Amino acid sequence: MPLVALTGGIASGKSTIARRLAEHGAVVVDADALVRELQAPGQPVLAAIAAEFGPEVLTVDGALDRAALGAVVFGDRERLARLNAIVHPAVKEESQRRFRAALDADPRTVVVYDVPLLAEARGAGEWDRVVVAHAPADIRRRRLVEQRGMTEADAAARIANQAGDDERLALADVVIDTSGTLGETRAQTDELWRSLTAGP
């Protein structure tokens, strides 16, 4: 059964699509959740981050201080590249392990990898289908301000820090337009599910 990459910019409605696919029976592997797990205390990834960037990126109880790490790498391409060289291979290995486990448990399973930074990581090779959640940047900026309480400037900066819409859309096999209502997004997701589970 298909291995699907689901991606989209911040506030694009990607999580809504992932939840709907899970309701239909897909196994959803969340890249952000994986990163958090791999960066937990006691994990080799966290030890490598602390060795690379120093103890100041840890809290007093030994957890990752995300704000401190962000301050260290933000705007510094070389340091960000070093962080990515620690985190990305570990995430790839663990995600592949979870894909295999899901397909071993049921070869007919639809596996969805919920991955915000697919375009940034240039990863379009292994997927049977790449699905892009898409809403124009002005709509996403408004959602960040109204739903997440960001300032206009912060919202614009977060969007600017990600791949552009054209870059993401160039990877897409399927585009789900999330600029309308929740019901419209769900209806498109239901149609996607039908196409993913249709017989040969």
Automatic annotation (TrEMBL):
<feature type="binding site">
    <location>
        <begin position="11"/>
        <end position="16"/>
    </location>
    <ligand>
        <name>ATP</name>
    </ligand>
</feature>
<dbReference type="GO" id="GO:0015937">
    <property type="term" value="P:coenzyme A biosynthetic process"/>
</dbReference>
<protein>
    <recommendedName>
        <fullName>Dephospho-CoA kinase</fullName>
        <ecNumber>2.7.1.24</ecNumber>
    </recommendedName>
</protein>
<comment type="similarity">
    <text>Belongs to the CoaE family.</text>
</comment>
<dbReference type="GO" id="GO:0004140">
    <property type="term" value="F:dephospho-CoA kinase activity"/>
</dbReference>
<comment type="pathway">
    <text>Cofactor biosynthesis; coenzyme A biosynthesis; CoA from (R)-pantothenate: step 5/5.</text>
</comment>
<dbReference type="InterPro" id="IPR001977">
    <property type="entry name" value="Depp_CoAkinase"/>
</dbReference>
<keyword id="KW-0963">Cytoplasm</keyword>
<dbReference type="Pfam" id="PF01121">
    <property type="entry name" value="CoaE"/>
</dbReference>
<keyword id="KW-0173">Coenzyme A biosynthesis</keyword>
<comment type="function">
    <text>Catalyzes the phosphorylation of the 3'-hydroxyl group of dephosphocoenzyme A to form coenzyme A.</text>
</comment>
<keyword id="KW-0808">Transferase</keyword>
<keyword id="KW-0418">Kinase</keyword>
<keyword id="KW-0547">Nucleotide-binding</keyword>
<keyword id="KW-0067">ATP-binding</keyword>
<dbReference type="GO" id="GO:0005524">
    <property type="term" value="F:ATP binding"/>
</dbReference>
<dbReference type="GO" id="GO:0005737">
    <property type="term" value="C:cytoplasm"/>
</dbReference>
<dbReference type="InterPro" id="IPR027417">
    <property type="entry name" value="P-loop_NTPase"/>
</dbReference>
